[in-house]
Specification:
By secondary structure, the chain is mostly helical. Helices cover 79% and strands 0% of the residues. Helix 1 packs antiparallel against helix 4. The longest helix is centred in the C-terminal third of the chain and has 33 residues. It starts with a helix and ends in a 5-residue tail after the last helix.
């Protein structure tokens, strides 16, 4: 493949990654303002917290797989993590479009616990937004068989993705007593 075609593909992927990385948070923010008067047949928060837990586990197994030279297993696990993250996102949006927000805390909740909760929640949200381009760049580099560059970005992507999935579970556990 000649270099101009490689450059055009890289530019196309780069533009697509930028567009998706901007579009997802913007669309989510817009959809959070939309309220649908519909009662979901199931309570989604424990389901998407479980999805986060499974994703965290699969990320760790994928890391072990690649360190053991099991490239195809790593690839399948990472694709599963991406798919689970997309399912999580759809469920998360559906829940927040159909349910009033849950306030954290009550009269017995100390300020320290509230500050801890909001620190975890805010860092979780901000890092989940930053994670979008990191996952996409990591995926594209692996897809293009640019494994040296894939490894460089994956070293940044992995701990952030793991943090986001684990803190998603922590946020659920912390707020679950306040669901009505």
């Amino acid at each position: 493949m000649d270099n101009s075609i490689k450059i055009n593909k890289k530019q196309s992927y780069s533009l697509l990654i930028r567009l998706i990385s901007i579009a997802i948070p913007v669309v989510v923010a817009i959809l959070f303002r939309v309220r649908i008067d519909y009662e979901l047949p199931i309570f989604l928060p424990p389901i998407y917290a479980t999805i986060n837990a499974v994703t965290a586990s699969l990320l760790i197994v994928a890391l072990i797989a690649i360190k053991s030279g099991k490239i195809k297993l790593h690839e399948r696990l990472m694709k599963s993590c991406i798919a689970l993250s997309l399912v999580f996102l759809v469920m998360y949006i559906a829940y927040h479009m159909t349910t009033d927000p849950t306030e954290f805390g009550n009269n017995n909740t100390t300020d320290t616990i509230k500050y801890l909760y909001f620190f975890i929640l805010i860092s979780h949200i901000l890092l989940s937004i930053a994670l979008i381009p990191l996952v996409l760049i990591s995926f594209v580099r692996a897809f293009q068989k640019e494994f040296v560059n894939h490894k460089k970005i994956a070293r940044i992507t992995f701990p952030i993705w793991l943090y986001v999935t684990i803190t998603g579970v922590v946020v659920y556990v912390m707020i679950s007593p306040f669901y009505t």
